[in-house]
Amino acid sequence: MSEALAELRGVSRVYQKGKERVDVLHELDLDIPGGDFLAIMGPSGSGKTTLLNLLGGLDRPTNGTVTVGGAELSSMSNNQLSNWRATHVGFVFQFYNLLPVLTAQKNVELPLLLTNFNARERAERAAIALDIVGLSDRARHLPRELSGGQEQRVAIARAIVSDPTLLLCDEPTGDLDRGTADEILGLLQILNREHGKTIVMVTHDAQAAEFATRTLHVDKGQLESRAAA
Amino acid sequence: MKYFGLIWHNVWRKKIRTSLTILSVLVAFLLFALLNAVGQAMSTGGATTGAARLVVVDKVTIINFLPRSYQNKIAQVPGVAAVSHQSWFGGFYQDSRNQFPQFPVVPDEYLALYPEFVLPDEQLQAWKRNRTGAIIGRDLAELYELKIGDRIPIQSTIFTNKDGGRTWEFDIEGIFDTTDPKGGTAVLLFHYDYFAESNTFGDGFVGWYTLRLADGADPVEVANAIDEQFANSPNETRTSTEAAFAASFAKQFGNIALIVRMILGAVFFTLLLVAGNTMSQSVRERIAELAVLKTVGFRDGTVLGIVLTESILIMAIGGVLGLGLGWLAAQAIGSAMAMFVPGGIVISADIILLAIAVMIAAGLLSGVFPAVKAMRLSIVDALARG
Ligand SMILES: Nc1ncnc2c1ncn2[C@@H]1O[C@H](COP(=O)(O)OP(=O)(O)O)[C@@H](O)[C@H]1O
Ligand SMILES: [Mg+2]
Questions:
Q1: Ligand having the closest approach to the CA of A95
Q2: How far, in Å, CA of B369 to CA of A80, rounded?
Q3: Cα A162 to ligand 2 centre (Å)
Q4: A198-224 pLDDT, tens per residue?
Q5: Whether ipTM exceeds 0.90
Q6: Annotated domain spans of chain B
Q7: Shortest alpha-carbon distance between residue B353 and chain A (Å)
């Protein structure tokens, strides 16, 4: 278990909705070994996104500790978390969340603005990332000139451009048709197998979960494993 | 700066909205440049900018005349090196729109007080020999294409001559220049003697006195001594520096500086609302994008800086365009009104520096609330909404 890339210990997350207390996650433990491709399933509102946000240092647990790559996220300041995210983790969202005013290339370069790379180095690295996701020929296109699948590829390129170990994907195919979804999932599989990325993917789609190496279900604030395909 | 591309593209995310905002910034800074330049031209006023001279005027209003007998009394006040007088003739050339100052003066006395005016000696001698002779400044000569030897009619709005008419004819005997780079020369000078003999009011009065201080004399002491001397007489005086006199002269036409400030205040208040609204909208419609920036590792302070820079950039684009247009307009207006503002209307370095400071301040003010909102944005909430 000390081999784990990410460790959640006794993690609870409570939201206060007015006077109502919402116990989203309750004393949850999770170990994610390096190289894992983990699918997390569960009904809507069960806390999947909350779990992913905690893993990515976007949110803090009410109780418990989140440790990723030896760093304890819960003890970091906001700025430390920002720096940590910039180098250790990549995010992919359901609705791609590209900046509409920037070309695909510039969207991918975005995280590199926070590094010391110069303009030429940034462009080179973004080109490599776009090549990995198979979109080199769309580098100069704006997001609105791309299909949903292509936008998601650009988003994946943006997530991997600073070469993080951990990729967090929140329903990455939730907005795509089956065929395109399978292409994106295949791409994630390649990133996991050939590029050594550890991937945690939230999905409500059982077929999508099949691309992962294992699947956990969120239920009543806890994780439980069922027989994976 | 590596964020510039990001900032630039965000500024233009809604092209029409940004263009309209920039247009209102442009208009504000066009007015800013022009009104300030006109204000400066008016306050430096008229023909001269000398500071070492004092002006003695009627205490009640500069429109009242002073007795000519005051000249000797002023000359005897300790600290006064030289004194001469001028009077407002209120004339125009050919058309009532062609107004410029004409002063009846005593040639040697007057020129001794204004060493910045340079006139070739033979022209001075010619002027002194000709009772109806006059000299004009280079600005005026160029404006109306006048030359030595011309005989020009000046129609006074105040003084009737002995013929019963108000048209006075003068022979141009000389054209003078100025060594003061800020001073204009759109002035006509003619003989006080001729004026005194020919006008129907008589010869015992002048408009005001100008005096030069002796080296080391305290202007305040000299001014007080003069004003005390004429206290409780029918013509009490007020003595001030020439610059202050020019400013009070301008006040006769309304308190220009105050009006300028009020107009600009209203313009910039409106501008802040317009630009602030643009920035608020711009931030509101890209909450999710700002959350993405933070997600990939942009710090809160960086996001604040990016939004503020966008706001300042909008001000800077509109402001620079406005100043440029203001400069063009100043050329046009300056040459159309050369008789009122002989120095021309100049967008000075002061005005430009002030404008730049205002651009930055207005950018910060209109951007600060949206920028702080962007900075404080919670990633989790924003992504859940988007
Ligand atoms: N910022 C928040 N404030 C209050 N409640 C929240 C907040 N974020 C999520 N929740 C609640 O927490 C629960 C889990 O949300 P989420 O993790 O987004 O679920 P999922 O991704 O599985 O659909 C939901 O009931 C949701 O309403
Ligand atoms: Mg979710």
A1: 2
A2: 25
A3: 25
A4: 999 999 999 999 999 999 999 888 888
A5: yes
A6: 4-43+255-385, 53-251
A7: 33
